[in-house]
Design brief:
By secondary structure, the chain is of the alpha+beta class. It has helices spanning 2-19, 33-46, 48-55, 102-111, 167-170, 180-214, and strands spanning 27-28, 58-59, 71-75, 78-88, 98-101, 114-125, 132-142, 151-154, 160-163.
Length: 225
């Protein structure tokens, strides 16, 4: 399976690179990282059927906003969902690494027989053309095969999955041989640790509210044990 998955990621990367062949040497566009990133994502999703035709896979309908992926295809009984991410390589740029909600990720991987792929497009301001950006690289990697240290969960609603590293930074560390069960072993423990911390924080805050009431609603503060 690992060789097949790696091969599919390589083929998909080459297909997207070929589609953006002109962009790889510079594209005239509004010099704005967000606008450029939105343009890249739009180009991929708008031409998704053509890309899938080249790959000889079945494209699936472009999902709604609540779906964890931007586009998808089915092949060999699996659904491959792609999350297109653009990475501004300017040293001063910031990315929160946001992926999706914990529950939605687990449902897709476990219930839908899904394989979640990150398509990362690195770009920077062109050094040769005014008001242009250059695409420096395109990487495609399975989320479940990324290094364990790359995963983190933050308490937004029921928990938000984020990446500590860009795909480019850890591309050589991808564990192509990691099974789904091995990934779930890693991720469920991370998730449990997160929720236990949330419980402790919530109980501490409840105690702070109770103390506030007992003190006649004076000098409120959220304390920590």
């Amino acid at each position: 399976m690992s060789k097949t998955l790696k091969s599919k990621c390589n083929d998909l990367q080459k297909a997207i690179e070929g589609f953006f062949e002109d962009l790889l040497v510079g594209v005239t566009a509004r010099e704005d990282s967000r606008a450029f990133g939105a343009m890249v994502e739009k180009q991929i999703t708008s031409n998704w059927e053509s890309i899938c035709k080249e790959l000889k896979v079945e494209p699936l309908e472009i999902p709604g906003r609540r779906t964890i992926f931007d586009c998808a295809f089915s092949d060999g009984g699996f659904i491959y969902g792609l999350d297109v991410k653009t990475k501004d390589l300017d040293a001063t740029s910031y990315s929160d690494g946001g992926i999706c909600a914990v529950g939605n990720l687990l449902k897709f991987l476990a219930n839908d027989n899904g394989i979640f792929l990150i398509v990362e497009v690195g770009h920077k301001k062109s050094e040769t053309k005014k008001d242009s950006r250059d695409i420096e690289y395109i990487h495609v990697a399975p989320f479940s095969c990324l290094p364990e240290r790359s995963f983190r969960i933050e308490n937004l609603g029921t928990g938000q999955v984020r990446l500590n590293d860009s795909v480019s930074e850890v591309f050589d560390e991808i564990d192509w041989n990691r099974s789904n069960a091995e990934f779930f072993d890693i991720f469920t423990e991370l998730t449990k640790t997160h929720y236990l911390r949330v419980i402790r924080d919530a109980n501490t805050r409840i105690e702070s509210i109770d103390t506030f009431k007992k003190n006649g609603y004076e000098r409120f503060r959220f304390g920590r044990k």
